[in-house]
Amino acid sequence: MEKRIIIGLTGTICGGKGTLATHLIDLGFNHFVLSDRIRDEIRIRGQEITRALLQDVGNELRNKFGGAVLAQRTADLMADAEGNVVIDGVRNPDEIKFLRNVLGASILGVDAPKETRCEWYLERAKSRGEDGTSIADFERDNNRDLGIGEPGTGQQVSKCLELADVVIENNGSKQDLFNECNQFLKDNYHFDIEIHRAGKEK
């Protein structure tokens, strides 16, 4: 029986995490997003979901229940999922420690040039109400996400990237991004992309 693969994705705002997660879903991975646990909490409170509120409530939950709370809650949901798993949106070192030490996950980081990420952020703002609509909004959200001015239990993406097993620089095509991910899976898990693609197409 093959060892279950668990990948934790960390990375900068609009750096390509979602695109990479979609690629892994196409390869048969179950998909979980840590911030969905925050969204659940916000919905329970009857509040409107915005990026600022996601950041605030995420910090609040980590302060109250510990830095790994979102990863712990996600792990509970994973109990019924069979097969490989990708966990998107890792933003705190305590989440990495839990995913790596408790679940045996590998941590894959993704980043892109800041100017490119700002363009993607503004484009995404047209379809998602969680983003701002100006360069100033991007700068504010990006700095906070990286950990500038944030407490230890807050978002600390810069530190998470330092702790990642590998960081993919998303400065080429989508296929370049996918190829680097595929190589990581092959090198670390002997994961044959073509076999899994063929299996999915049957």
Describe the structure.
This protein has one domain: P-loop containing nucleotide triphosphate hydrolases (Rossmann fold), CATH 3.40.50. The two termini are 21 Å apart. The protein is globular and about 45 Å long. Helix 4 runs parallel beside helix 5. The mean pLDDT is 90. Strands 2-3-1-4-5 form a five-stranded parallel β-sheet, sandwiched between helices. It contains ten helices and five strands, in the order E-H-E-H-H-H-E-H-E-H-H-H-E-H-H. By secondary structure, it is an alpha/beta fold.
Throw out a few tags for this protein.
alpha/beta; 13% strand; globular; 5 strands; 202 residues; Rossmann fold; 10 helices; five-stranded parallel β-sheet
Could you say which overall geometry the principal axes of the C-alpha atoms support?
globular
| Percent in strands | 5-15%
DSSP strand tally: 5
Secondary-structure element order, N to C: EHEHHHEHEHHHEHH
DSSP helix fraction? 40-55%
Main β sheet profile: 5 strands, parallel
